[in-house]
Amino acid sequence: MTSGRKFWTLRYIVINATYFAVYSGIHAYASVFLLEKGFSNTLIGITLALANILSVIFQPVVAGLIDKQGKLTNRNVSIASTALLLAGSVLLLIIRSGIAVIFIIFALIYMVQMVYQPIITAMYFEYEAAGCHIYYGLARGLGSAGFAVTSVFTGMAIGRFGVTILMILDIIFLSIALVVLFFFRKPQVSSAEQASTDVAHNNLFSFIKTYPTFMLFVLGAVCFFFAHNAINDYMIQIITPLGGTESAMGTAVFIAALLELPTMALIDKIMKKVSCRNLLIFAGAAFLVKTLLMFIAPNMTVVYISQAMQMFAYAVFIPVSAYFVNQTMAKFDQVKGQAYVNCSITLGGVFSSLVCGRLLDIKGPHFMLTVSLVVTAAGLVIAFLALKVLRQHRHLPG
After folding, report:
1. Which of 45, 124, 135, 383 is the most exposed place for a label (fewest CB within 10 A)?
2. How confident is the model at residue 4 (pLDDT cuts 50, 70, 90)?
3. With a threshold of 0.85, does the pTM exceed it?
4. How many CB atoms lie within 10 A of CB 310?
């Protein structure tokens, strides 16, 4: 690795690692935090659903503004998002009671972080095109490692210090991210290099008309992330009947996140031998196996095995889908493409939050996982058909 590449990669690693460390506090421990604040499972579901709905609305809107190549750049939006998350975390640290206020603040920071996620990915492709060579797979994998280490540490820290430690850690990581982002400036690109004949499809209907099979694939991915989000958001409720604790939850999250690193770090080499289409189908099948294992788990050992499937599911889907968008979208649609892929995660979160919170209250975790398993299977069929058509008509590489 050259010194220049190390320089850009190192800073991009810090951006990813701090983002996903905060993601651990806001997303993986959402139920733990909100339960402690007096929220019911149903109200937690409503909170997360609202946050995800807002995210689905704002992700393509913000992406469309960035795609216009104006002053609202990937970096500027990243800085603004980080600052908003920092302010929200400080408020949640200060506010000790008041469900209504906590509901609003938590939903907003949850939403902002989801809007920000595809922009980090789009920033990589923007900087790579400007000559800032970055090892994306390694950086993204170490981001997951940051999530893993933070999750297991947080699980133990909550047991000792209480849920207040969540916001303290978030404030520390967000402060680091803000400093790194401020100095993460790409070199100036000449006007000739910036010129492009591509047309941006910022209107949703225009985008769907231009990329219909891609949007069908996004629908299939929504189904994958229905179960993925259900397991992540309601992990504590799933494992409690199996004898699991907050500490065991931290271990389960740690296993899943840590095992993402080797897959993501090697994804560039893997894609040279296996097509994007086949890798995405493989990832969908792994999501199904992961959900099945969680469904049949009689103890925490099988839960840990289920979490280990993350290295074949999420760890493959996320980087491959990022390259997939970059290869199949016009230049001025690429940020929106990343946003719509991320919308599959958030829409999956919307439906799982609306449905699964209620299912937990009236039927319990086993029935919730039954529904998740059926939805994931449907998603695999939809994604397979979409990718088959996309390869035939849009000449998908590989």
Report:
1. 135
2. low
3. no
4. 25
